[in-house]
What does this fold into?
Amino acid sequence: MICGINVQWKQPIAYFLVSGSCTGNDLHNIIMSTIAKLQNISLNVKAFITDQGSNFLNFSKKVFVNNKHLIHFYNEDSKMNIRTAPKLTHAHIHKLVTAVNDQGKVIKSFNKRFDDLSEQLEKLSNDNIELNNRVSDLEKKVKILDQSNSTVHNSSDLDIINEILDRQSRANNILLFNFPEKLSESTSLKTDSDRLKLIFSKLDLKIEPIKLHHLGNKSNYDRPLKITLSDPKQTFDVLRTQSTLRTIPEFKDLRFSSDRTFKQRETMAKLRQELVQRRDKGENDIIIKYVRGNPTIIKSKKPIRYAPIKNNLVNDSQLDVHIYYQNALSLNNKISHLKSQIPNSLHDRNNHTSSLSRGGGVLIAVRSSFVSNRIIIHNNKIELLFVKIILPSHTLIISSVYIPNRSNIDVYNEYFDFVEKIFVKFPKADFLLLGDYNLPSSNLCNAESYFNDKLSYLNFFQYNHICNLKNVTLDYVLSNSINLNVMLDNCPIVPVDLYHPPFSDYFSIISYLGSINWPNLFYSNSNINENLDTFYYHIDYAIKNYIPKSRRHKLCYPIWFTHSTFKILKTTVSYTYFSDIRKKCNYLRYRDYKAFINKTQQSVKLNPKSFWNFYRLQKSINQLPSSVSYNEEANTGSGIVNLFREHFSNVYKTSTLNNSENFSFDNSSFNLNSINISKMDVFNELWSIKLNLSSGPDDISTRFFKETSFILSDIITFLFNKSLQTSVFPDKWKTSYVTPIFKKGDRSHVSNYRPISKISILPKLFSKLVNKKILPLCEKIICNEQHGFRPKRSSVTNLCIFKQTILNTFNDKAQVDVVYTDFEKALESIGFNNPLLSWVLSGLPQGDHLSPLLFSLFINDIVNVLKHSECLLLADDNKLFKKIKCIEDSNNFQVDLDNFYKWCYENGMTLNINKFSTVSYSLKKTTSYFDYSLNKLILTRKYTIKDLGVIFDSKLIFNKHVDYVRNKSFMKLGLLKRMCIDFYDSSALKTLYFSLVRSQIEYATLIWHTDNIGQNTSLSSIQNNFLRYLSYKCNVERTPHSEYNIINSLKNRYLTLNLRFLFKLLHNMIDCTELLEELNFK
It folds into this structure.
């Protein structure tokens, strides 16, 4: 039957009757003949449909049609689609056509809406252009208005309203200055109110004050009196008539003033500063006067005259001088007897123009016979003065400076910028710089080094070597002239400050050390100990005479308190002012603590280790208990020290080795006499030494060696090389401070502490240089099994080799038996009897640079005694293991354990057999267990053990380690949350999370991490917890991959760490041939 597609019709055209089934060939012939006949009568066949019988499948194969290719080419011009299932009926086609027509209508409607939106968008774009033009015009008009109206204030409307209200509240107030608080006994007027009535009566005013109040704290000076009147008109009358008091001798010093607001005082201070600057430039006929109620600088109608003066400064002889000074508060008191005689003084800073409450002030006095003038500089931070004096033969420029205590390095930088500019402006002049620089009290440790560098750059030298009563140099006298001599003035203008804080005179120290003939002192004596005593004698002499000693006081207040907070806490006031003082104290305490927290956060971002300083300040944990025991009990300081001394002295043992056969290297290729330390090696180490390192038993600071590195490098180099050549380590350098560090167990028992030695700077520097020289030679000698204290190796490489050995054994269907050893006091219990290292007598102090290397050399031949098994070392952490297939393998392993014990006994190494343990790693259902023994003691068998920070189990599943890591990470995260309650910087919190928490999760992931969903979910909960905390704490987006807090997921981190380890292994950044052999590059 044939049917139409667009028009509904159908017509049977042929019937094929068979007695049996129709084959695929029959079906093919019928369909093809039918299609040919239809085409002959001009009917174009587009598609045909059949059922899904097996015959049709055979037919489809003949015409090469399948489910993916439904087109059959009948001839070159015509092609037909064969529809299989479902059958394409007219109903299906009709629905499809209807859906297509509906979709076309929807598309037409969308096109119409799109055209409408395009028209609207174009209209909005035109409107936007017009608005931009209008805004630009408005901005130009506003700018013109701002330029034309210079009197418009920048204050907001609220500030203006507050200022108006403040002035109205002060309108009834008036201030009275120079009003004496202490009255003479002869006067009959005892109260302030009675005396005020008398004053008002002299002014012909009938005024009754409402309230009287003295401003400020009680002192030796008369405080201003604040008077509250009933009417602002009365205030105006007092100010208008106060000039009458000048004619009354009793009241001529009194002065009334209105109660100005802060804005008014600020405006007046700026006007006074402008007045001073303009007078410095030559405008001497200007004054401040109120014009229409506003203070303004105007020209005076009457000329300002100064009376001729003679300054009686030296030996009461008459001498004309010009005095230039910057008037600070402390200097005001010292030159008060000169103020009335100084017409040319420059009042740059005084009580009205400065809010500072301490120190400073500089003064330069020049005879009037010399032509002098001040060099104007624009400076608001430093007490600095430059005066140029023109002499007959040359020009002299004198500078006086005071830099406050605890100044930042930027202050010194600004000062030298001024000096350099004037130096360039007057290149032929002689300079004389005098002043107090407060170098040691600066905030940065390198301030003095910066200061010395600048002097060297400008070719200035220090000439003042006069000491005060405390035998220290007070101030610097710097000059570029070689003809300069500094002498003591017997008639000083201002009194000498006996309590001025002194500073270290490294100029004198370098001069003293450079004047010593060191070759004559050293070369005449071949004893290294005597040479070192001579060296320390001169060093101690220089320190004693040129460096003052300071006494440290225990802080009674938190470390973040500033000077202003200390000052207000020590203020003694009456109860009337208690509320105000308490409010101010609370504010200052909050401000100081907030600044301290901000400083801590910035420090944490640069160095996460600084967090532990903050932790110790918050916790204040005492390291030692009040009572300890070791054979006996002690609860006093001296008793506790003696117990620790007894315990630690028993730890160090003298070597009992009788021969050097145990050492597996040749002395001819490794000789200390061949090691030579150059002067540049010593100088580079001294110059790069960290200033925050503490001194050792010799009490010489790192800063001393850094400052004197130029002069001491040659001397120290000689001492180092002589010690190597004579194979004698000086006795003075063997002394060290020992600090007990708690390990685990009972804190009150001395045996649970290990000693940490803090040696002096020079022996530590010596061992560091020797270590650099012999380390390349030792790398060829130390066995491959040692992974500790070696470059390109670590605990992770140790564990990787160990795990890979176990996995290879599992593939062979065998087991691995492991014995974990424990040396008792390993580093302290060894000694050398070999001539090569005879300058190290006994024991290795923990903290010395050579300790790890020498210990590795000492136990280097331990691998030679193991004939049947293997071992892996990380310093003194050692594990012995062997692949076990039969009982004979276990017996051979026991033989190696006996050889190991024998080696330890012969070399004086003490073993803690109670801490030995054995573990059998196997995947078999039945594991064979062998009782290994050491010195006839059966070793403890375990099924899980912590090896180098990773918990191994006998099946290598690591579930217990994941639980351990999760619990420890949550503990660290809890510590972070508790200690960082006041932190608000998300970067600081993330830095702490990375260093404290995520470092625990990511340690040795190559060993224990798997793709187990449960493990990954358990560990991811830690990071999710932190992200929730960070989101709540800092109000940041919680998504881990947001742009604000980029924290990669743990899954990506683990993949990155593994790839990074592989990259380092392939690029020789990790030296481990055992792991390279396991890689298959095919």
